[in-house]
Design a protein that fits this description.
Layout lengths: L11 E3 L9 E5 L2 E10 L2 E8 L4 E7 L10 H12 L1 H6 L19 E5 L4 E8 L2 E6 L5 E7 L2 E4 L4 E7 L5 E8 L2 E6 L9 H5 L3 E5 L2 E8 L2 E6 L5 E7 L2 E4 L4 E7 L5 E6 L4 E5 L2
Antiparallel strand pairs: 1-5, 2-3, 3-4, 4-5, 6-7, 7-8, 8-9, 9-10, 10-11, 11-12, 12-13, 14-15, 14-21, 15-16, 16-17, 17-18, 18-19, 19-20, 20-21
Length: 275
């Protein structure tokens, strides 16, 4: 039987859902959830659908930003906790996969950028144990539940790691309370000489905007018209990343070995070098 919820809670809540693009697929206390949230000036909203239980919760507020205790997403999860209480209790806890060897744990060592919540998760290994430390929190042990998938020993949360075609860890996907955070791995920087950095100095056409690259000492900076000037850091001979935002720029050289263009992975635009 389809279950719905109609209730007033601070502002208003409704139980219905329409489909669309941009939906987040995750788990809330290990139950699949499809959700999407957002807002514009004057209102915010959250839509959550639990397909196995055929249950929907939608929260609408008439404020942007909402009061801290009336943010739509946690309200929606709290309501689901109440109406799906029996289902949540029936879900078995995650199990440790003993086939995952501790010798693989060092592959995950590094820092992961939780830019959505302005935090960083650092993965460390001590002997045969692996730990996750999120900004402002103590280290907490995580346990393997499958290849590249872990759960927190003392918190109801999970994290899965993604690899590139070379098998290298590139990002983490943190799921907790029905919310999912994508966290790219922070690349280790490499040192380039001032002469090597000078090759990237110049102006690059980004559609209607211009990106200007300058050097100050051994630090390269990039500034897109109308945006602040920010440092960028070399992670490969021709590739740099921003640490303040999730973006990367790859400088492309011509047949003479001179920088001719730049490819920005955030905007997915190709630019042309102007000098």
């Amino acid at each position: 039987m389809r279950r719905s919820l109609f209730i007033l809670f601070g502002f208003c809540l409704f139980a219905c859902m329409t489909s669309g693009f941009g939906l987040m697929i995750a788990k809330h206390r290990r139950i699949p959830i499809i959700s999407h949230g957002g807002g514009v000036a004057g209102w915010t909203a959250e839509s959550a659908y639990y397909p196995d239980q055929r249950c929907s919760v939608i929260v609408l507020t008439n404020a942007m930003p909402p009061a801290s205790d009336l943010t739509p997403q946690p309200i929606a999860r709290a309501i689901a906790n109440r109406i799906l209480e029996d289902e949540f209790k029936s879900v078995p806890p995650p199990q440790v996969d003993n086939t995952i060897q501790p010798k693989t744990f060092p592959e995950y060592i590094g820092k992961y950028n939780y830019s959505d919540v302005q935090a960083v998760m650092e993965i460390t290994v001590e002997k045969d144990r692996i730990f996750a430390t999120i900004s402002g929190q103590p280290p907490m042990e995580i346990l393997p539940m499958a290849k590249d998938q872990f759960f927190w020993k003392d918190v109801d949360a999970e994290v899965s790691f993604s690899r590139n075609e070379k098998g290298e860890i590139t990002s983490a996907l943190h799921s907790q309370n029905g919310m999912t955070i994508f966290a790219p791995k922070i690349a280790e920087g490499i040192a380039l000489s001032e002469k090597e950095l000078d090759a990237f100095v110049g102006r690059y056409q980004y559609g209607p905007a211009i990106m200007t690259c300058t050097r100050e000492g051994k630090q390269l900076f990039a500034q897109v018209a109308g945006q602040p000037k920010l440092p960028i850091f070399a992670v490969a001979e021709n590739t740099f990343v921003w640490k303040a935002v999730q973006a990367k720029v790859e400088f492309v050289k011509d047949e003479n070995g001179e920088v001719a263009s730049a490819r920005h992975t955030k905007t997915v635009r190709r630019s042309t070098h102007q000098d």
